[in-house]
Design brief:
This is DUF3194 domain-containing protein. InterPro entries: DUF3194 (IPR024502), MTH677-like_sf (IPR035954). Belongs to the UPF0440 family. It comes from Halococcus hamelinensis 100A6. By secondary structure, the chain is of the alpha+beta class. The protein has a single domain, classed as MTH677-like (GMP Synthetase, Chain A, domain 3), CATH 3.30.300. About 50% of the residues lie in helices and about 25% in strands. Helix 1 runs antiparallel to helix 2. The radius of gyration is 13 Å and the shape is elongated. The N and C termini lie close together (about 5 Å). About 30% of the residues are buried.
Length: about 80
């Protein structure tokens, strides 16, 4: 069973990785990834201030999904 810290780190890394795969780091004005994992419940919030192409709101949503998927994989591989 992964630790809470491992879950949070996995989710955060996946979300940031997804964002950085869509934008050059220098183009990102602000990125905040908040991950909470308590009592088996994962909560991921991504705030992204970046150029309009691609749509930052869509990229933030994809980053949340990537984080959730990465955590699912973490639990499946344990």
């Amino acid at each position: 069973m992964p630790t809470d810290e491992a879950v949070a780190e996995t989710a955060s890394d996946a979300a940031e990785g997804l964002v950085l795969s869509r934008y050059k780091q220098s183009a990102i004005r602000d990125l905040d990834v908040t991950v909470r994992f308590e009592d088996g419940v994962l909560d991921v919030d991504v705030y992204l201030d970046a150029p309009a192409d691609p749509d930052p709101e869509m990229v933030a949503e994809e980053a949340v999904l990537a984080a959730e998927s990465a955590v699912d994989d973490l639990f499946e591989n344990e």
